[in-house]
């Protein structure tokens, strides 16, 4: 992909929160309306539709008439994947304007239960689920424990992430943690859930929808009322390679191929990134991604955050909306939403001054016995 | 545990051997000697040379987590419990419970071996 050939011309984000009591398809309809208005286009301009997860009823209910509708599901890496697929559709001449859509309402429903008739494939983490390895927290806890035992990272380092993210969220009305400060002492006193994660190391499921409208940079030029953000580069990696090499836990994901490709496409170096928005379901995710992206040395992610490295005046202001832990959990769309806000100057109290280039990440799914994930990186720019 | 064992059919030889006499098999490439678990293709030589072979059923703890919360009611009586990733001596990872030791005494790098004679449907490990 040539740098700056693809533009995001519309963003629609619904209310994000606990138990909204709104169906997923209705959340997507609301997000679509906002995104269409943001882009200044009508429904019939959408000629491609990409949905995070399956769709059966969306096109009918949303009143869309595209030439294709693609499901994509690779967990928290789905969000960057939808943009990559949209770019592919546009650059291969299959669409001019693609809607990338997400909505989930997990906190209005229940967690899928175990018991009854199961198949091996239905166990999210395969065989490990049978010895009680259930939930994303434990999957990440294995990486966190490895990092602590290998590098000396401490629970206080994890707490420094939680406190920093909450400090970002404090002044952001769009965040769950708005107006609710926490201290390191409160982090340390919060109950242990799955060692080494305490309650304040974990994000919570929230309901909400988001739709992005993606088109060519050429087309964006003729859309006078929009505020486009450009896709400068993209890359993906998969940690299964590290499973095959028996080196899973030193890696949060396979980030090296993802950032390598994304930087090469965008033609910028890491120091050109003004803000990073990491996928951060658990505090360790911020620490390990800072290291694997190269913002700090291996093993130094904890001290880097504790020393203010991801604060607004730090080396790389990160997860400025509070991330998933203190902001809201819209899967991989949480970092994308915040990156868009930063590049459009709409991040309010945590706006990074002169933010022109943002990095976003997502990781997830493909759990299985091996518990390895896809990882996606996007580099977005305020200019093409 | 959370109910009856659910086995993938490709791994039937592993589960059959464990059930029969607690023999612990791994899937081995006859060409290069690489072991895998569960059923796999050799990343260098494909599926043809793969065969199930008895192994040491011992290794070291690579990493672990302690569950203080029961995510399903069947596990309520088990907490706190340890799920560890054992690096088997033949190479593959094996996720299992570590038994017979206080959860907070479990450490990375600890030598562990499969537990036998307890009628475990799923192979659990204990300190060597």
From TrEMBL, chain A:
Coiled-coil region(s): none
Span of the signal peptide: none
Superkingdom in the source lineage: Bacteria
Database matches in CDD domains: SCP-x_thiolase
SUPFAM superfamilies referenced in this protein's UniProt entry, alphabetically: Thiolase-like (SSF53901)
Pfam family, one: Thiolase_C_1
Domain Thiolase C-terminal: from-to ranges: 242-380
InterPro entries: Thiolase (IPR002155), Thiolase-like (IPR016039), Thiolase_C_2 (IPR055140)
Record protein name field: Lipid-transfer protein
UniProtKB/TrEMBL annotation, chain B:
SUPFAM superfamilies from the UniProt entry: Nucleic acid-binding proteins
Pfam families associated with the record: OB_ChsH2_C
Domain ChsH2 C-terminal OB-fold residues, every copy: 52-115
Protein name per Swiss-Prot or TrEMBL: ChsH2 C-terminal OB-fold domain-containing protein
Organism annotation: Sphingomonas psychrolutea
């Amino acid at each position: 992909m040539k740098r700056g050939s693809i533009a995001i011309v519309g963003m629609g984000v619904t209310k994000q929160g606990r138990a909204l009591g709104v169906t997923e398809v209705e959340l997507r309809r609301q997000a679509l309306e906002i995104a269409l208005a943001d882009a200044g286009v009508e429904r019939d301009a959408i000629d491609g539709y990409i949905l995070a997860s399956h769709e059966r009823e969306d096109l009918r209910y949303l009143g869309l008439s595209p030439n294709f509708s693609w499901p994509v599901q690779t967990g928290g890496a789905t969000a960057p994947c939808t943009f990559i697929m949209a770019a592919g559709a546009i650059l291969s001449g299959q669409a001019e304007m693609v809607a990338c859509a997400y909505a989930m309402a997990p906190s209005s429903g229940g967690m899928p239960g175990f018991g009854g008739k199961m198949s091996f494939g239905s166990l999210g983490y395969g065989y490990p689920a049978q010895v009680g390895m259930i939930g994303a927290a434990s999957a990440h806890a294995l990486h966190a424990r490895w990092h602590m035992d290998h590098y000396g990272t401490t629970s206080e380092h994890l707490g420094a992430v939680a406190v920093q993210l909450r400090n970002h969220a404090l002044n952001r009305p769009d965040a769950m943690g708005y107006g609710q400060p926490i201290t390191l002492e409160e982090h340390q006193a919060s109950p242990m859930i799955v060692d080494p994660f305490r309650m304040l190391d974990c994000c919570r499921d929230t309901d909400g929808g988001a739709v992005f409208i993606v088109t060519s940079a050429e087309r964006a030029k003729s859309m006078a009322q929009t505020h486009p953000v450009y896709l400068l580069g993209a890359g993906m990696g998969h940690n299964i390679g590290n499973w095959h090499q028996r080196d899973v836990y030193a890696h949060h994901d396979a980030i090296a191929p993802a950032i390598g490709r994304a930087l090469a496409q965008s033609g910028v170096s890491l120091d050109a990134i003004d803000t990073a928005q990491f996928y951060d379901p658990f505090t360790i995710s911020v620490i390990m991604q800072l290291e694997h992206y190269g913002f700090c040395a291996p093993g130094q992610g904890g001290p880097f955050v504790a020393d203010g490295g991801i604060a607004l005046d730090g080396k790389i202001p990160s997860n400025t909306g509070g991330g998933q832990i203190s902001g809201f959990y819209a899967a991989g769309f949480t970092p994308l939403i915040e990156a868009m806000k930063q590049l459009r100057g709409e991040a309010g109290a945590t706006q990074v001054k002169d933010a022109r280039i943002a990095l976003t990440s997502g990781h997830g799914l493909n759990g299985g016995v091996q518990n390895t994930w896809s990882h996606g990186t996007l580099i977005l720019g305020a200019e093409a | 545990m959370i109910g009856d064992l659910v086995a993938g059919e490709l791994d039937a030889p592993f589960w059959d051997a464990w059930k029969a006499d607690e023999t612990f098999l791994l899937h081995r490439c006859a060409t290069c000697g690489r072991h895998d678990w569960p059923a796999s293709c050799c990343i260098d030589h494909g599926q043809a040379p793969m065969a199930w072979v008895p192994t040491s059923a011992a290794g070291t703890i690579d990493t672990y987590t302690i569950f203080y919360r029961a995510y399903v009611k069947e596990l309520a009586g088990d907490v706190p419990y340890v799920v560890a990733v054992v690096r088997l001596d033949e190479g593959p990872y094996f996720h299992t419970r570590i038994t017979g030791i206080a959860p907070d005494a479990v450490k990375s790098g600890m030598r562990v071996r499969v537990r036998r004679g307890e009628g475990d449907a799923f192979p659990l490990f204990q300190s060597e």
